[in-house]
Amino acid sequence: MSTREMGAPSPPIESYDDLVGWFETGCKPRDDWRIGTEHEKFVFHTDDLSPVPYEGPRGIRAILQSMIDQFGWLPIMEGDNIIGLKRGPGEPGGNISLEPGGQFELSGAPVRTLHQTCTEASVHLSEVKAVSRELGIGFLGLGFSPMWPLAAIPQMPKQRYGVMTRYMPKVGTRGLDMMYRTCTIQVNLDFASEADMVRKLRVSLALQPIATALFASSPFADGKPNGALSMRSEVWRDVDNQRAGMLPFVFEDGMGFSAYVDYALDVPMYFVFRDGNSIDVTGQSFRTFLEGKLPQLPGEKPSLDDWSDHLTTIFPEVRMKRFLEMRGADGGPWERICGLPAFWVGLLYDDEALQAASDLIAPWTQEQRQQLRDDVPTQGFEARLGNRTVRDIARECLALSRAGLDRRGFLSNTGQLESMHLDALDQMVETGETSADEMLRLYRGRWAGDITNVFKDYAF
Predict the structure, then answer these.
(1) Helix, strand, coil shares, percent, the chain, to 5
(2) Residue-wise pLDDT tens digits, 286-302
(3) What is the pTM (predicted TM-score) of this model?
(4) pLDDT tens readout for residues 265-282
(5) With contact defined as beta carbons under 8 Å apart, do 232 and 218 qualify?
(6) In 155-227, which ranges are E strands?
(7) Which of 56, 58, 425, 443 has the fewest Cβ atoms nearer than 10 Å?
(8) Considering only CA atoms, which of 237, 233, 184, 248 is closest in space to residue 379?
(9) Residues 401, 211 contacting (CB under 8 angstroms)
(10) What percent of the chain has pLDDT above 90?
């Protein structure tokens, strides 16, 4: 989740057109399209497999401080606490932030090729492993905490997380599980125009359950199978349905930046950032703030930074800011960190693949899209849309993506095309076994029901 820093104030919002204009500034020519990959991982003590608290000689703060000392990262502070890391001006590497339960996230820099984003992920993982090895700490890439109960997971000292922790139980049953017990991989991709945004948003929303199935890796909770393949995705079905889901309006006539603005204006807010503090405004709408009627800030109207902050607290399956965020995948190992952006870049950044994907989803009804979203977390590849399984659809989408990546023509240092990063996904479709299926097979076989083996076999 994004980390806000103090800075120069942004312009005040003068009119509704400013809100639409904020999105319009995200439109970029094709040559400026970039790939921004985010990935989270659970942090654990290797001796007793316990979650890592913030404080202490073997805590999250100690990891962050070691990253500063050994690799030149700069701290992002909230009061006296380091809550994130950033690179200096012009330095590559993106930012590091903390999720509510200490999940460690790299928000990658926008890069041109998948080879670059994979190199970035490799460098990041080598750095965190180097500092954590000295502390007896490991990192695990799964979609849901396989063993720790909610009560055992520490809370990071970030004010906005306190606001969310108090609010979540009021609007759904699984919000705290989402905050403290899930990890994801996401990719952020650009659009050229409003029309291009609409086409990409429709394709990516409709196909997000396909990505969920391909990246399902969360079949355990509380030390045993949980009945799902992607418990992370299942949890999202009852977090806060006013700010999550499949956004049916996106597929209606007239969809554009204004339609998304209208939606976002009425999504309840979490906080307003003022003077380094996150002021609790839960339940109030941005529309109320725009009218100067926010009870916590009477008479005050929002700035564009407030609008940007609010948009980061909306959690649909695909989120629009000045780019599109694909949000449907569980956390996973290195090849899956690279595989997620590969899947979406191949589909969305190549005109021929995007048109074919648009044609694929065109006949799907809202009811079918929603049913697919509801079925995939537990059924995975076996979920059906009409007479086709998700496995069938995934195979077709991977073929489209591979062709799209190959047409891009970007070669690695060893002369390989970007489609190399789809190989692991193709193999899963051919075998019919996702990472979650593989883990369940091991649990019932070689692991003999001992969940602790997941920390050995699947840690980075």
Answers:
(1) 45, 20, 35
(2) 999 999 999 999 999 99
(3) 0.97
(4) 999 999 999 998 999 999
(5) yes
(6) 184-189, 220-221, 224-225
(7) 56
(8) 233
(9) no
(10) 95
